[in-house]
TrEMBL record:
It is an enzyme of class 5 (isomerase). This is Protein disulfide-isomerase. Transmembrane segments: none annotated. Keywords: Flavoprotein, FMN, Isomerase, NADP, Oxidoreductase. GO terms for molecular function: protein disulfide isomerase activity. InterPro entries: Aldolase_TIM, OxRdtase_FMN_N, YqjM-like. The gene is PDI1_2.
Length: 411
């Protein structure tokens, strides 16, 4: 009998076959029992069915959203990030997106955000990717530029002061905040400088360079952050983009920055690897970016080789009026899915229950769900959803003794 461990004892890694989060067929005894009673096993809920995107197959459709942890210095990942992302892979997440990672130092949201603007960042991220792969999880990273919402204090300091602005003494970059137009998000943020064409091209190249580094780190998926009021979203929305050149004004001009960036990233990203884009499908402000714009953009993104569209909302204007309720943003993924069937859609937004998540996928409202805060509350969300839905699922080998017993149901 061969050893289940890797050859190098310093790695001490036990192979997981199948990987955690993978559905396990009912035992022969359960099948025999079901057929003896004239019943058939329940079909596997769609949320636990695999999803193929280009050359990659997500083992289930419960994915971890990128969530800023504000735990880096000079952009470098740490042991915290390794432990943080690994916990979700160990417990069966199908795909994990590493948090918004700045393509330039001034592209970070805060001085404590991750970065990918220099080669020295690669090794730390490679370590995380390697660990996610050991558990059969697709490893993705969201690359981003903060635009006018940059140089702010980390989330942990919110509420401790009157302004969110991070000074140069705190590691901020108050003199290097820029955006499509010289309009601040609000009084808590710095007033940005309007970008020159040269700066636009520099940022686009920074996304390309970060993509090349992400490939060297071994990531399977790149997601471009075009949501939540950060730079690429700022170009899309007429509320934040008041330019009069080829990057402002009409829909075609306002989408030019995103389309050009996507095109350049796709050109250097391996063709067998999926490319994601995250958008805010609406600004929730009259006269702002809206769901019809998102559908029109999705049609353009498909032509540029984008495979998956994550549909979030808001973050670009403090006048936003958000109708918060469970699953309130799912409607936007559904609208894109119905109008642009060539692209996979991901639903987000107050998805907290296993049955709720399953219903979204089962009813074809989206192709996958990307969950954020509920994974922080319950890193075992995939495992608990399997128990809730009565699905026999593989647990991590080392945790098998704690597995919740599932009696396979029959209909």
């Amino acid at each position: 009998m061969s050893s289940p461990f890797v050859s190098d004892p310093h790695q001490f890694y036990q192979t997981q076959d199948p990987s955690p989060g993978t559905p396990v067929e009912p035992t022969s005894a359960e099948i025999e029992q079901g057929f003896a009673s004239g019943k058939n096993p329940n079909p596997l809920p769609k949320i636990f069915q695999p999803l193929k995107i280009r050359n990659y197959v997500a083992k289930n459709r419960m994915w971890v959203s990128p969530m800023c942890m504000y735990s880096a210095q000079d952009g470098f990942s740490t042991d915290f990030h390794l432990a943080h992302y690994s916990q979700f892979a160990i417990r069966g997440a199908g795909l994990i997106l590493v948090e918004a990672t700045g393509v330039l130092p001034e592209g970070r949201i805060s001085p404590n955000c991750l970065g990918l603007w220099k080669d020295e960042h690669i090794d730390g991220l490679k370590r995380i990717v390697s660990h996610l792969h050991k558990y059969g999880t697709i490893a993705g990273i969201q690359i981003a530029h903060s635009g006018r919402k940059g140089s702010t204090i980390p989330l942990q300091l919110y509420g401790t002061r009157d302004s969110l602005r991070a000074s140069s003494e705190e590691g901020g970059w108050p003199d290097n905040v820029y955006a499509p137009s010289a309009l601040p998000y609000n009084n808590d943020h710095y007033t940005p400088k309007e970008m020159t064409i040269d700066q636009i091209k520099k940022v686009q190249q920074a996304f390309v360079n970060a993509t090349v580094r992400a490939e060297k780190a071994g990531f399977d998926v790149i997601e471009l952050h075009c949501a939540h009021g950060y730079l690429l979203h700022e170009f899309l929305s007429p509320l934040s983009n008041k330019r009069t050149d080829e990057y402002g004004g009409s829909f075609e001009n306002r989408t030019r920055m995103v389309i050009e960036t996507v095109r350049k990233v796709r050109a250097v990203w391996l063709q067998e690897k999926p490319l994601f884009v995250r958008v805010s499908a609406t600004d929730w402000v009259d006269g702002g970016w809206n769901s019809d714009d998102t559908v029109a953009l999705a049609k353009l993104l498909v032509k540029e080789g984008v495979d998956v569209l994550g549909c979030s909302t808001a973050g670009n204007d403090p006048r936003q009026k958000i109708p918060l309720s469970p699953g309130y943003q799912v409607q936007f993924a559904t609208k894109v899915k119905e109008n642009v069937p060539e692209i996979c859609t991901v639903a987000v937004g107050i998805i907290t229950e296993g049955q709720q998540a399953s219903d979204i996928i089962q009813n074809d409202k989206a192709d996958a769900v990307s969950i954020a805060r509920q994974f922080l509350r319950n890193p075992s969300f995939v495992l608990s959803t399997a128990h809730e839905l009565n699905v026999n699922i593989k647990w991590n080998n080392q945790y098998e003794r704690g597995k919740l017993k599932t009696k396979y149901s029959f209909v």
